[in-house]
Design goal:
Elements lengths: L9 H4 L4 H12 L4 H4 L4 E6 L11 H14 L3 E6 L16 H14 L4 E6 L4 H12 L3 E5 L6 E3 L2 E3 L3 H11 L5 H10 L12 H12 L14 H20 L3 H4 L2 H14 L4 H12 L6 H8 L16 H6 L2 H7 L17 H6 L22 E6 L2 E8 L9 E9 L2 H7 L12 E4 L20 H5 L6 E4 L11 E3 L19 E5 L4 E4 L3 H10 L10 H9 L10 H4 L11
Parallel strand pairs: 1-2, 1-3, 3-4, 9-10, 10-11, 11-12
Antiparallel strand pairs: 5-6, 7-8, 8-12, 9-13, 13-14
Helix pairs in contact: 4-10, 5-6, 6-9, 6-13, 9-12, 12-13, 12-14
The structure holds FE2/S2 (inorganic) cluster and magnesium ion.
């Protein structure tokens, strides 16, 4: 147990030096009396609320409930507005800014008199960004997931954000619905605050935060507007105060077992492939070795139990009523490390003892899984020496072993311009290749990985084809899409050397991705290849381009991921 003088904030507010005097005078200026905050844990509430972010629009108010909890437990709450990464509105992609928010998180926690933190967010990249920064800062930390929005509704149908947007847009293009229907859909697709309520990146990463042990049990799936979300926020604020006294830091919670359990959970949820990149980056900050191969190894023994869209039928709200993540995890205890400590201060297994599943359709039993094997496979071969990823449960099984001629697009613009060009001679056996879409080339690995099929094949009823890219894919997409090919084409990865007509072989059972062109010819092409000019000559884009790592390393900045001292500031 810590004493008040052991608090980090004591270095700012305690003592009889000039600095302590000055800091105390300034907290009077903030409007507080000494007894309200001196000797109490200072809790930073890092809030990613913004007027532009519909997924976090309730967090401004929800921070008040966190503060309520902090005060009640004898802490001193201070709210810090931090960058908002809105998956919908921020361009070219919030992935470009994940590391920026992680830096902001780390540096705010380091440079101010802070003893513990409550991290508030949930829209896609926000969760990994906040957690990466918190790991680097190393303080006691608790995560308050923004929570999913309510189910979408249109007429008598339940709608999933993302997935149904694409579906109805196709209906509109095909002339099946008109402007009136579309305008109704606009109002029904996303009808409350909160994150996407399908099993996209947001739901995946909020669930990751929970299974890692960084949220209160059951927090990840509470609908954003449910009163339970208010209570969870207050309880999280209260709990982090005790974590400070107990010195239960994030570093003590996150070990290799925690990351293994996170991978298990992502797979059992049929979660987003983006989790592969984020988990590697988060683990890297904690000096915990984690690689794409860990995913492949774990995927071979974890069944998919959550039947949630886009792969399945239900939505996050249904998942919550069915028992949420504790319910799901209670069916996987043999595959988890249940003796790990969580923010509760108790082992994960203790929470799971009382967890129940209330609907076996939404959270399947082990003998009736959605898929017997986890959804993600890691591929290697001369086209992806550092690995590539495929969510094979979302692909047409016919394509899982396939050889076809490449049709190459240099970037997304090229793809959009030429995909319907009859001169390309694309057949359903072709392999569509998109390059220039990786961490540097994209930049920020945009979610272009579900390459559109040409119209003439769609009309023929073709619904899936093998596609290969260095891009990512939205958690709400699917198809035989090979993603995250590393190294990317922009840095001269073999993807840069592919030419139209080259045979490419995808073989998921043997985890291979091969470009069937001989080495001498590839070497010849490599000699002709030139590095593209830098896209950014100044600014954050230049910093990003000079320091971003490849997908298999988590796309962190090299200077954030590396080992080394980052000294505590001298508060005096
Ligand atoms: Fe924010 Fe989907 S747009 S979670
Ligand atoms: Mg998304």
């Amino acid at each position: 147990m810590k004493a008040p003088e052991d608090l980090r904030s004591h270095r700012w507010f305690g003592g009889d030096e000039l600095r302590g005097f000055s800091h105390r005078a300034r907290s009077r200026q903030l409007g507080y009396n000494p007894e309200e905050h001196l000797g109490k844990p200072v809790i930073a509430i890092l809030n990613t609320w913004s007027d532009i972010n519909p997924c976090h629009m309730h967090l401004r108010e929800r921070a008040e409930q966190v503060k309520r909890g902090v005060w009640q437990a004898g802490g001193f709450p201070l709210e810090f507005p931090v960058a908002t990464l809105s998956e919908t509105f921020q361009k070219p992609t919030p992935m470009l800014y994940r590391n920026l928010l992680s830096m902001e998180t780390e540096e705010i926690l380091r440079s101010y008199p802070i003893d513990g933190t409550v991290l508030m967010g949930g829209c896609d990249k926000t969760t990994p960004a906040l957690l990466m920064g918190a790991v680097s800062a190393g303080l006691p930390a608790i995560f308050v997931p923004a929570g999913p929005m309510l189910r979408g509704h249109w007429r008598n149908e339940v709608l999933g954000s993302g997935t149904d947007m694409w579906k109805y847009w196709d209906d509109k293009r095909a002339g099946l619905i008109g402007d009136a229907e579309l305008s109704e859909l606009e109002r029904g697709l996303a009808r409350s605050p909160g994150t996407c309520m399908t099993m996209g990146t947001a739901s995946t990463m909020m669930s990751v935060a929970e299974v890692l042990g960084l949220t209160l049990p059951g927090a990840a799936s509470i609908p954003a507007v449910d009163s339970a979300h208010h209570r969870m926020a207050a309880a999280s604020g209260a709990r982090v105060v005790d974590m400070v006294w107990e010195d239960l830091t994030i570093t003590k919670i996150l070990d290799k077992r925690a990351y293994a359990d996170a991978i298990t959970t992502v797979l059992a949820l049929g979660g987003s492939t983006n989790a592969v990149i984020h988990l590697i980056a988060m683990a890297g900050r904690g000096r915990i070795p984690l690689s794409v191969d860990d995913f492949d190894a774990i995927a071979r023994r974890v069944p998919v139990l959550a039947d949630i869209r886009p792969g399945g039928v239900w939505l996050m709200e249904d998942f919550h009523y069915a028992g949420g993540l504790p319910g799901l995890l209670s069916r996987l205890t043999d595959l988890l490390h249940t003796d790990r400590v969580t923010v509760t201060g108790r082992p994960l297994g203790e929470t799971l003892e009382t967890a129940r599943v209330h609907n076996d359709d939404v959270i399947r039993t082990r003998d009736n899984p959605v898929a017997a094997e986890g959804g993600v496979a890691v591929l290697r071969g001369n086209l992806a020496p550092s690995g590539a990823v495929i969510k094979h449960i979302a692909a047409d099984p016919r394509l899982l072993v396939h050889t076809g001629p490449a049709v190459v697009f240099d970037d997304y613009r090229d793809l959009k311009k030429r995909i319907n060009d009859p001169a390309l001679g694309i057949t359903e056996d072709s392999v569509l290749v998109l390059r220039g879409s990786g961490p540097l080339g994209g930049p920020g690995m945009p979610e272009y990985g579900m390459l559109p099929l040409p119209d003439h094949l769609l009309t023929k009823g073709v619904r899936d084809m093998v596609r290969v890219s260095d891009a990512r894919m939205s958690g709400t997409s699917y198809g035989a899409c090979v993603l995250h090919v590393a190294p990317e084409s922009h840095v001269g990865g073999p993807l840069a050397l592919v030419r139209d007509g080259d045979p490419i072989t995808l073989d998921v059972p043997s985890r291979r991705l091969t470009l069937d062109v001989d080495d001498a010819e590839l070497q010849h092409r490599r000699e002709q290849w030139t590095t593209p000019p830098p896209r950014y000559e100044r600014g954050y884009g230049a910093l990003y381009s000079e320091h971003i790592t490849q997908a298999d390393e988590g796309c962190d900045f090299d200077f954030l991921a590396r080992v080394g001292e980052n000294p505590e500031p001298d508060a005096q």
